Amino acid sequence: MNLQLNNINKLPVRTWSWLGINEVSVKENIPEVTAYNKNPIKSDKTILDNLILQNSLNSETLLSSIETGMEEDTVRFIKKYKNSGISLCIPEGIRVKEPIYLDYRLDETNSTVVDFNQIIAEENSEVTVVLSYRSDEDKTVFHSGLTYLYAGKNAVINLIQVQLLGENAIHLNNVGAKLIDGGTVRYTQSELGSIQSLSSVHADLSGNNSRMDINTIFFGDKNHSLDFNYVINHIGRMTHSEITLNGALLDQSSKVFRGTLDFKKGASGSVGQERENTLLFSPKIKNISAPLILCAEENVEGKHAANSGKIDEDKLFYMMSRDSMI
Predict the structure, then answer these.
(1) Per its UniProt entry, which superkingdom is the organism in (predicted)?
(2) How far is C-alpha 295 from the geometric centre of its chain's CA atoms?
(3) What confidence score (pLDDT) does residue 325 get?
(4) Is residue 130 a contact partner of residue 162, using CB atoms and an 8 Å limit?
(5) Helix, strand, coil tally for the chain in percent (to 5)
(6) What average pLDDT does the structure give for the chain?
(7) Residue 266: HSE in the Cβ half-sphere, 13 Å Cα cutoff
């Protein structure tokens, strides 16, 4: 099956094309998308029974306004070929104590996962959702996911995604979020596998005092490539965002990071910051970062920092001589 997605993970404002950072395209031969015949849900079914999102005009209205960081072609592909996923609605005032855990294991007979996830947290509710993706090293597999998040007034959504796919895997992950007054989304992402990994987050801080935190760790070796695109729009007043990206690159691996904080008119008193720290363990790696701050409001605070470098050779020798894990 041929997969072609053009000009995805776009920077909101283009820069010089020779930098190769404005967008990325995907053209790959992937396994045919068939049914996923395993049950990924590891949580107590009795908990989920009361949280399943019922399709309604209200839920469709809430989720239809959510944008994602990848282009519409990617969204259409996932909605057309989806073979798994979860839809949750956390009722007002309910705080789910136990994490909701889905574990996807890809293998020769279940070589594709295209999961479409929808999570609505109503006023003063809280939920934690964990999604993990794994496969054997030698299996050719494909994952593409789309997750919509809607955090209502003073609601909290904790989303954790762990990608541990083998080196013959292609992985696309697309997240869109909308936050109302006092809503909070904490997104934790681990990108530790696959030959090609593309990730995108688009968050609209629409309500006053809403908050979006993104914490990502990544690892690239051999000829693996990673591509990140995070866009946070500060729309309401007194909104807050933090993007933290930490990782390491070895061999001939590559990484592109696009991080955009966009302070819209009216976002007075808002604060946003993004930090990236990348350890480089080879002179052959390719590491590109584009931290971007856009501003249409005066009374805001935006910060960004990107650090890339090597560990001091003496310190590295000291750690390795004592069998320390790097």
Answers:
(1) Bacteria
(2) 24
(3) 53
(4) yes
(5) 10, 50, 40
(6) 92
(7) 7
